[in-house]
Design brief:
The structure is a homodimer.
Chain A lengths: L9 H71 L1 H9 L4 H102 L8 H66 L2 H35 L3 H11 L1 H4 L22 H43 L19 H8 L3 H46 L19 H7 L14 H8 L5 H13 L13 H12 L14 H14 L7 H19 L1
């Protein structure tokens, strides 16, 4: 170290030390303040969280109650209507009514779930925040105690430094003064020696004697001062060593405090804070995610019911509801008059030629009519297709309304622009009604034509049988009611339903022809499964299975797989039975022909009437 | 056909016919009634659906408003606090505050989404139901018109049957009467012939003449009656044929109506009903599903923030917030006294032995102290681990509260039983606080010990240097502040942080040693990527990327993969920059050593002060 141009005075050094210590002290106070402030902020945050969740719980409860009221109101209303009671019995609801009930169920489910959410907020989440707040305060107190101890230790170290520094100053000052005294003595001795170096002859004897004793005295003094100086010098060195060692220890302690202990203190305050907060927020998340899952399940059930919105089975149910109105009447029988024993068309000689002529006329008339009517039918079908395209347009996706763009523009503007532009809707509807108008006109024309054809065809066929001719007309539009329909012709006669020959909702005969399977795999597989696991099962074919599972199995079959192939019974037996029922219900030509339906029904009615009386 | 035992009289036949027709008429009326009723039920259902969604829209709007108010209230409160303003500037939020803001954001998002839901109900779903209701009514009217025409046609056919039947009766009756008249003539003729068979001789000539003319007359009459009979017979046969043909045509027409036309009529009523209902309900489902998706996204963001609840980076931020309080103070410098030129520990002859002795004493004292303190440290660590296990217990799953059992039991009972049993919680908390108590006691003991060690170690090390010994003490707990720390030792000195030498939050030197990579792959790969795509990118390293993507990339690197290997820029550049920042931030020994942190900060402060003045 180079010599400083100017020595610092003791006072300056002490002042410097004291200012440094003062600064540290101020920092220690400041640190405590910061930690206290942090804890206060945490407590405040936790208080806010509690208030927030308390308020949110209120909102959820209110929402839940409103939803419950809504569901109850409509449930009550529905329960009182007669159609409800009518349908309730056999659980065989019309598909739109089924959707409606599921909608109400979903609202109930949402109501329950939001009530549960509120309950979890109040009894779990808020309690956790309360506890975290308590914990934070306690941790801060504990860390404050430790901080106090650390600060005291630090102050002790600093005081020690002060002490050893002062000691060093003192001994060094003493060492300097001893040195200067020694130097003074040496100077005196030198002077004496210098004086005694004067020519001797000038000096008197007593003077010489005097001088000698003085030299001795000076020498003695110098020796004394030399000893004193050495002693002080050693003390000073030791004091300086001690000062240097303490300085090193002080700096080490100060930096240990700032780099490690301070960090430990903060860790003490933090102890468990983040982890507990994590758990509290995860409880909230768990509740929200579960609410979502439940909601989603409910929506899936509705979606499934919407998928099953189906006019065909509803029509069936509708007709079954009113058998008296829709049951075909008795045939008009031939009533022979006054013992007329002939009850068939007579083709004896006098009338035969006439009948023959009439038959030929009928045949040619029918041919013309059918060609004409076929044209009308084609137009009708095409128009119907247009209408169906219109009513099945996929215009129900509202995803874009839920885009959370970063911009703060109002949602409304986007909404109105995209999914419901009123002029375009009005135009679409006008167009649709115009098409309808045309469709009904053509349908009427077609029905008129086909009614005439039916009449003439019946006469034609009877004449044909009577005249004993072998061949039959090819494209008959209807047939005598007592002849079972040929499926293909049946399909031709119902042009407005669009079935394709799929596994479900298809035509069994077509399927058998196309696939080469005598018994469709689905029937065989389901029956095998039921045979294995279902025969002892109570309520088999009565209890309905899981709609989701039924659809899964159905879809799997439709993909050409066999989901029931492995022997593990991991499918619900009721669902498997449901698939089989679904398959039979969906057949385009029912297993029990529609033409026989009313006969079968009246059979049952008759039977039960007989049984009752 | 066997001969009936008794002939039905004309009147009976007519009565039977009329009752059959009457029945059909009644059925036709009934069918119209059924269709009308069905339409009424549909209109009613659609009205209910409209009312339902109108009411639900109200509930959603109210819910949305309440949520918005809730968010606004706390946002406003938060905005006014000073910590918000403090943090807002640099967007560098403490992780719990970040969670809190995201929670408020989520409420806002939910509020917006439920408002959108309400909007879609009102402006889309309800409108659709209204239109379906209109359509159903219109379709019913059109089908009624067609039904009217079909009924008229049917009645015409039935009337025709009546006419031809009556004609048949008439002609047959005439035929019978002609036949009986013929028979009567034949009988008379026979009588005449019988009488003429009497012995001739008895008869007078004029009598004979008279008889002959009478026979002729009878013969003539018989011929006339024969002709009449043949004519009537033919007419009767033709009438019967006509009756039979018409009967066939009538039955065909009636059955065509019941089997096909009726079905067509129902189809007419149904036209578009199911499809439109499907679309309306799908709009509802789309809205609900989208709400759910949006909600889920928001929850995922919160979950991510909860994952990032992290005391270490928060501590860092906290200390950065108050640099004045946490900046280590200046070192205490050696102040030489009054020109003392020696500023190092002096180990000259007189004090050397003493220093040597002292050094040895320090060494042995330190060894003992360290062993003792190591024990205390282990206990402290174990206790801390216990506490951490307590506060990280995974007790936040509330799934079972959302089980929708089929039973109608109240949800509350299940809730209180499972997730929050108060006695067990109290016990757990008491246990935790006891452990805490012990931990703090031990921590204090440990800190006291390590403070003493620090002091003695500093002196020991200084003496060691002074005495010029080559070897260094092995397990020093602290080091002189101006010597950069050796990472391993640094790690030892901070026993309560649990870091393992992973890629992230690890020690770079250890990593380099373990992996053999001079530059970690992650650094190389990120910098290469940024070099390729990011140099022109505005806000690089400032704009934060997607937290999800950052985590993905990070996890990928941690699995040892290189997600940025392929040259396609399918990663957001900000996310890649985020990964690099995350990596450097997570290093256990920061790139800029913590010991230099305050120097660097004051450098900047100084620089900017100079620039400003």
């Amino acid at each position: 170290m180079s010599t400083p141009s100017r020595f610092k005075k003791d006072k300056e050094i002490i002042a410097e030390y004291e200012s440094q210590v003062k600064e540290i002290r101020a920092q220690l106070v400041e640190q405590q303040k910061c930690l206290e402030q942090q804890t206060e902020m945490r407590v405040q945050l936790l208080q806010d969280l509690q208030d927030f969740f308390r308020k949110k719980a209120e909102i959820e409860t209110e929402y839940s109650r409103n939803l419950e009221k809504l569901a109850e109101r409509f449930m009550a209303k529905t329960r009182s209507t007669k159609d409800h009671q009518q349908y309730k019995k056999d659980q065989n609801l019309l598909s739109p009514v089924n959707c409606w009930y599921l909608l109400l169920n979903q609202v109930r489910r949402e109501s329950k779930d939001h009530a549960t959410l509120s309950d979890i907020y109040l009894n779990n989440v808020i309690m956790r925040f309360m506890q975290i707040s308590e914990d934070s305060t306690r941790m801060f107190k504990k860390s404050k105690e430790i901080a106090f101890q650390l600060h005291e230790d630090l102050m002790k170290v600093l005081n020690e430094l002060y002490t050893v520094m002062k000691t060093y100053h003192m001994y060094h000052a003493e060492s300097i003064s001893a040195e200067s005294k020694l130097k003074e003595a040496e100077k005196q001795e030198e002077k004496q020696i210098g004086r005694s170096g004067d020519p001797v002859f000038h000096i008197r004897l007593e003077e010489r004697h005097q001088r000698r004793s003085s030299v001795k005295k000076i020498e003695k003094m110098k020796e004394k001062r030399q000893a004193k100086y050495s002693e002080n010098k050693l003390k000073s060195i030791k004091a300086r060593n001690e000062y240097l060692l303490t300085l090193e220890a002080t700096n080490a302690s100060v930096f240990k405090y700032y780099i490690h202990d301070l960090s430990d203190l903060i860790d003490c305050c933090d102890l468990g804070y983040h982890a507990s907060l994590n758990r509290a927020l995860r409880t909230y998340l768990s509740a929200e995610y579960n609410l979502e899952t439940s909601r989603h399940e409910g929506l899936d059930i509705i979606e499934n019911a919407v998928d099953n919105l189906e006019p065909r089975s509803d029509k069936q149910r509708f007709m079954e509801m009113y058998p008296a109105a829709f049951c075909p009447p008795m045939k008009f029988e031939f009533q022979s008059h006054m013992g007329d024993e002939v009850c068939q068309v007579s083709a004896q000689q006098p009338v035969q030629a006439e009948l023959m002529l009439r038959y030929q006329q009928l045949q040619s008339r029918l041919a013309t009519l059918k060609i004409e009517n076929e044209e009308v039918k084609k137009t009708t079908e095409a128009t119907l297709q247009t209408i169906q395209d219109m009513v099945t347009i996929e215009d129900y996706d509202v995803s874009e309304c839920f885009q959370h763009s970063r911009s703060t523009e109002s949602v409304k503007s986007t909404v109105s622009e995209t999914y419901l532009s009123k002029p375009s809707i009005a135009k679409r509807r006008a167009n649709q009604q115009e098409t309808e108008q045309f469709y009904f006109m053509k349908l009427r024309e077609y029905l008129e034509g086909s009614n005439l054809i039916t009449k003439l065809q019946a006469k034609h066929d009877l004449l044909q049988r009577t005249l004993g001719e072998g061949h039959r007309a090819e494209y008959m539009t209807t047939r005598p009611p007592n002849v079972p329909p040929k499926p293909q012709k049946h399909r031709k006669s119902r042009p407005r339903s669009q079935y394709n020959a799929k596994l479900f909702n298809g035509d069994l005969e077509t399927f058998v022809k196309d696939s080469g399977q005598i018994i469709p795999l689905i029937v065989e597989s389901c029956i095998r499964f039921i045979n294995l696991y279902g025969l002892q099962h109570q309520g088999i074919f009565r209890v309905s299975g899981s709609q989701v599972e039924v659809n899964d199995i159905k879809n799997s079959f439709e993909r050409g797989e066999n989901p029931l192939a492995d022997d593990q019974s991991n499918h619900d037996i009721n669902s498997v039975a449901g698939v089989l029922k679904l398959y039979f219900r969906g057949l385009e030509n029912p297993l029990f022909p529609k033409e026989r339906f009313n006969d079968l029904i009246s059979c049952i009615t008759f039977h039960s009437t007989v049984m009752r009386t």
